[in-house]
Amino acid sequence: MTIDTSMHPCFSASAKHKFGRIHLPVAPKCNISCNFCNRKFDCANESRPGVTSTVLSPAQAALYLQKVKALVECPITVVGIAGPGDPFANPEETMETLRRVRADDSQIILCIASNGLNLEPYVEELAELQTSHVTVTVNAVDPKIGAKIYRWVRPQPNKVYRGEEGAQYLLDCQLASIHALKRCGITVKINTIVMPGVNDHHISEITQKMADLGVDIQNCMALVPVEGTPFAELDAPEPKQMMEIRQQIRQVLPQMSHCARCRADAVGLLGEANSELIQDALIEAAT
Ligand code: SF4
Ligand code: SF4
Question: How far does residue 33's CA lie from ligand 1's centre (Å)?
Fold first, then answer.
């Protein structure tokens, strides 16, 4: 697969002021429960992953994309699916959306962000669709630590794992997914949320394991404690601690430092809020 990262605003610091991305919010459900996540908020002014003003069907998303391309000033070079749940807890919607977008535009960069639980079965088709960038969030490579982060892991509707068993199950799926992605030549980014007292002493182990698997880049993000979650009372890491962590692991794996922690329906240049025009187009697309 030929990968041109120079036009991906998240993977290339020089592209972030020139090229825009759109997240299509087609994946509402999630198949794991992270102690830092709350997807119940639905606020147009809140900017963080898991938040969207609405959810679209694949057909609505494809139409909305055409509208948005005409509404924004910057060229949209990347179409991503990042929730508001997990793309592969909603695999039919996710894959159908990617197929439609690719059928309409052979050049656009396709990008996915997942927790990795149910990603592996879809890697080959992702590669066939020329999905060039995939992010997997890995917050622990030790199930004892993972058990503190994940309340439950549900690979199938009638199968739920908890505690270390759940964390081990998730980790095995993540490792298999990353292996398959790299085998298909896909650029892989690892998102890692740094949670003080939970996994902040464990980051270099995660980084080393990911480097061993051949991943391309890591994005360490400070925990943002969100109201209504088990981790609401945890302290967010200080910027100094984040800087030291990145400094320490940079030699092992390149570090991304300009992630804007976008909403699941973000549009345009990184760091810029969705305009009212976009907001209206999104709501209209859903009706
Ligand atoms: Fe929330 Fe993402 Fe975790 Fe699912 S995988 S619970 S959407 S943070
Ligand atoms: Fe890019 Fe980070 Fe925004 Fe995802 S959340 S689109 S990686 S800047």
Answer: 6
